[in-house]
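Run Nitroreductase family protein through structure prediction, thanks.
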Amino acid sequence: MSNFVNQLKNRRSIYALGNNLPQSKDEITALVKEVVKESPSSFNSQTQRVVFLFGDAHKKLWEITEEALKPLTPPEAFPNTQEKLKGFAAGAGTILFFEDQDIVKNLQEQFALYADNFPVWSEQASGLTQANVWTALAQENIGANLQHYNPVIDEAVAKEWNIPASWKLRAQLVIGSIEAPAGEKEYMNDADRFMAFG
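Sure, done. The structure for Nitroreductase family protein is below.
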């Protein structure tokens, strides 16, 4: 088994997160910056944008999320939602992934033939970047789980951290120390998933 495949196997959704990371904020941000720079984007457009939230800023994000979800969640289900959010807040930080829509629009204007594809390629670049960052963090024994509370929290997040208007929130990667391992992963049958010819 290649080392790369082992790295992919090591990247799992860790929900039992703590705030006991041996790495400093600076070490984590430096690693993530390098990974983002090396992650591909169509036309090398570099549409990916990242915001790091640690400490009080990290906790504030999950307070914002709770406030946004309360009016949208049935009262009987809200305690479960609160518990879930409390689990995220217990981590060491959150990495917010954005895509710069100004670049996407500029490329659509420059290359009209491919205009419909640029939003799709932007999403692909974001997904690749999220997976690369997540895998790199797993190699450092940093637990993580990926959340998608956008677009519910977009406006409040933009206001709280003065996010440029052209940045579109795509995902939230919660990170922290691994307090309990991921559960067993199940795989669908290969015959239902793969085809090979020639």
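Residues 59 and 169 are 18 Å apart (CA to CA).
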